[in-house]
Each structure stands twice: as structure tokens, then as C-alpha cells.
Design brief:
single chain, globular, alpha/beta, Rossmann fold, 17 helices, four-stranded parallel beta sheet
């Protein structure tokens, strides 16, 4: 099998999109802390919010018995809401106590929430003040994780966009700047991609890095490759500093991963023969593993509620590589430029929807009666009670799913609930 894939979009702008505005069912951006705090190992995320915010993070993260998590919540209570306490003084006291207790922290994020935005607490000014106080040992930045207007993966986008102005400027050198892979990847996936890029002869750096001291430089010579489809603000911030995006599908499944690597190879002048040599073995392993899962998924119908912004790349993978039938593919926000190749690879006539009017989408889902529904936790149990098989969308963000070695694991995430339903019906 040749790895060379046609990457140019053809007519994706003509795909009709149903745009809806109404009641939404999504997590807030604070949820992104759960994977970000595991990635940047000397960073800490301090949410300025309510007890509800703290409970959300604890529930999403699970119980961590053997290690202190690198996130916490500075609780806004009744005195703060009533204006009886100076919120900035209280915040300074909490941050000082935190840094005294955790001297290993090198990067501190003040994360805004719905409550802190309601009382108009200026975390940007607080971050500037605290960064001046604790530098150079600790940098303090802020971003909003509020769920008032966003979906949960935009928390990562806001975090990385806040980091971009802090990235060092790239220096002129004899060779090309390293490729910047943008988007949080599990360490095991990052290591696999690093080996593949090394074998291709492409210098690479990952953003975000594993340590705050390893921030990649950026400048007019930087080319970046998105690993996640929900990083519109981060991409805009990188381009404001001169970086150029390498257009590519996203590395989900064999086809997506191959096309993603191919786009990087073409940008760095790597020959198709070299790409074939490097990717042949992992491609064949992935194809063999996917064949076993295709038996469980081929011909099954699937409905995507808008939740994570991963919906379109996932739909492409399930349709083209697993033989599933797409009934509706909903996404919270459709970035046509970043998803051009993905949209072009969807089957003709697929129904795309952007935004959400949850009651109308539930009605459409019931009428279509798909074999499996991908949705948020708030919808899963009610839909299950009505006889539909569901897959939690958030699990697709928490689980390593990118790359060749994870392709079969990704397929199994969809096969598992279908198999469970069969066993229950037996």
C-alpha cells in the first residue's frame, strides 16, 4: 500500500450545514485541566471559582490517592460574592500559600470560571501582578475556562493561546526551524510520533511541552501541524507571531495518521519513498488490528451530538476505515479551514450540524434510531433508558487515540458499547 494520499480539498465549501442555536449540553472549559495538568509536569492550575467548579474537577479527575494533583480551586464564597472581602487580597494570599507549599511549581495558571467572571474579578491584572512578584522562579498566566459560551475542549485552546505570547522567538539558523506539533497528546503518543519524525529526518518540537522550561521557540520560519481540531485561537496566536500552518487531516486512524505525516513530509521535502519506508510497518500492524474491529462496526449507523469538536475527524475515520453509516455529525463549532480535508473525505450527502438545539437534535436522533450515539454524559443515561446505545464523548478526549498504534483502540471504544448491548440482549 502506498502512503501517498491526495490532500487537496475539493468542494468542501459546498457541504450544507444545519446551524442551530438553542439549549446546549456540554461540559465547561475547566475540564481541559484534567489532561493539561498531566502534560505540563511543573505547571499548576488554580481555578478561581465555586465549590461546584471544585466538584466538577474532582469528579472528572477521579480519586488520586498516591500523588497530589497539580490543580486546585480557590473557592469564591458568600463574602466574595457580597463584596465583603477584597478578592484580590484573598487571591494573593492563596497563591502565596500555594507556592510556599509547592516550590516545584514553575508555571501557574489562574483559570477563570463563571463565578469569577460574574463578580468581574480581573485575573489578567492579577496574573501580571503575581508574575512580577514571584518571577523569575514562577510565571503566572491566566485564561478563561468558563462554560458560559464555550465547549469543554476550548479550555485547552484558551490555555495554549495564553502561552503563545510567552514562547521564545526563534533564532535564524542554517537549517529549517523544527516542525511544531500543536495540541496536547498523551506521552506515549508523543513518543511514537517523535520516533516517526526522527526516522523521516524532520526536526520536531511539541506544544505544549512536558516542562515549562522547554517551551518551543516560534517565529516567521516556524511551520506548525495541528494534532487537535479545537485549537482555533492557538493557531491564530501562532500565526500572529509569523508561524505557518501545515494543512492536514488529523491523525486518527491509519488514513488520517498517514495523511498527517505525509503533509509534514511534503513541507520538509521528504520523499514519498522515505515516507513509505518509515510508515510501512506501523501501517500494516494498524490495518491488521483494525480489520478485527471492522467486523463489529461495518454497516452500523452512528449519530454524533456536538460535544468535543472531534466529531468530524472521528466520523471520517469510522465511515472510511470502519464502514459505519453516518446519520448526523454534529459539532459545537465548525472551522472550515482547519477541517477542509476532513470534510472533503466525508461521504456524499452526510448531514453536518453546527451548534446545538438539544431538544430538536434529540428528536432527530430518536427518529433515526442509530445503532450508537456519541454524546455527553448529561444525555447518555436518558438515551440509554430509551433503548439507544451511547458512547461518552469525553472519553474520546481523555483516551490516547492518535496514531497508528492507537487506531484499533479508537475503534474498540465504539465497538465496546455495541458488544455490551448485544450481551445484555442475549
Amino acid at each position: 500500500m502506498s502512503p501517498v494520499i491526495a490532500l487537496q480539498p475539493a468542494g468542501c465549501a459546498d457541504v450544507p450545514v444545519l446551524r442551530e442555536r438553542g439549549q446546549r449540553e456540554v461540559f465547561c472549559g475547566l475540564t481541559g485541566i484534567i489532561w493539561l495538568h498531566r502534560k505540563i509536569q511543573d505547571a499548576f492550575f488554580l481555578v478561581v471559582g465555586s465549590r461546584t467548579c471544585a466538584h466538577l474537577l474532582q469528579s472528572a479527575a477521579g480519586v488520586m490517592i498516591f500523588a497530589e494533583p497539580r490543580f486546585a480551586t480557590a473557592i469564591i464564597d458568600e463574602r466574595d460574592l457580597a463584596g465583603l472581602a477584597d478578592a484580590n487580597e484573598e487571591l494573593d494570599r492563596v497563591v502565596t500559600r500555594l507556592l510556599e507549599r509547592r516550590p516545584e511549581i514553575k508555571l501557574l495558571f489562574l483559570v477563570g470560571s463563571c463565578p469569577s467572571e460574574v463578580i468581574k474579578l480581573d485575573l489578567s491584572r492579577a496574573a501580571t501582578r503575581l508574575s512580577a512578584q514571584f518571577s523569575p522562579q514562577v510565571r503566572v498566566l491566566n485564561y478563561s475556562g468558563s462554560g458560559i459560551e464555550t465547549t469543554f475542549t476550548q479550555g485547552e485552546d484558551a490555555c495554549l493561546a495564553a502561552l503563545v505570547p510567552q514562547l521564545p522567538a526563534s533564532q535564524a539558523s542554517a537549517g529549517p526551524d523544527p516542525l511544531m506539533v500543536v495540541g496536547t497528546l498523551a506521552d506515549v503518543v508523543e513518543d511514537q510520533f517523535a520516533r516517526l519524525f526522527d526516522q523521516l529526518g524532520i526536526p520536531v518540537q511539541f506544544f505544549p511541552p512536558r516542562r515549562a522550561s522547554e517551551m518551543p521557540p516560534v517565529g516567521p520560519g516556524t511551520r506548525y501541524l495541528l494534532a487537535q481540531p479545537f485549537l482555533a485561537d492557538t493557531a491564530r496566536a501562532l500565526e500572529a507571531r509569523g508561524a505557518q500552518r501545515v494543512a492536514a487531516p488529523f491523525p486518527l486512524g491509519v488514513e488520517g495518521t498517514t495523511a498527517w505525516l505525509q503533509a509534514a513530509a511534503e513541507a520538509f521535502g521528504v520523499s514519498p519513498q522515505r515516507l513509505e519506508q518509515v510508515t510501512a510497518a506501523p501501517r500494516e500492524r494498524a490495518l491488521s488490528a483494525l480489520a478485527k474491529q471492522r467486523v463489529n462496526l461495518a454497516g452500523k449507523s452512528i449519530f454524533f451530538f456536538p460535544d468535543s469538536q472531534l466529531e468530524i475527524p472521528l466520523a471520517r475515520f469510522l465511515s472510511r476505515e470502519m464502514g459505519m453509516r453516518l446519520t448526523e455529525v454534529g459539532t459545537p463549532y465548525l472551522h472550515r479551514q482547519h477541517l477542509a480535508q476532513e470534510i472533503d473525505w466525508l461521504p456524499a450527502g452526510v448531514q453536518l450540524s453546527e451548534g446545538q438545539h438539544v431538544e430538536q437534535q434529540i428528536d432527530r436522533c430518536r427518529a433515526l434510531a442509530p445503532d450508537i450515539v456519541v454524546c455527553g454524559l448529561g444525555l447518555a443515561n436518558p438515551l440509554e433508558a430509551q433503548g439507544l446505545t451511547t458512547k461518552w464523548a469525553i472519553e474520546l478526549v481523555f483516551t490516547p487515540i492518535q496514531g497508528y498504534e492507537q487506531a484499533a483502540d479508537l475503534a474498540e471504544l465504539f465497538a465496546r458499547p455495541l458488544n455490551r448491548r448485544l450481551r445484555l440482549a442475549a
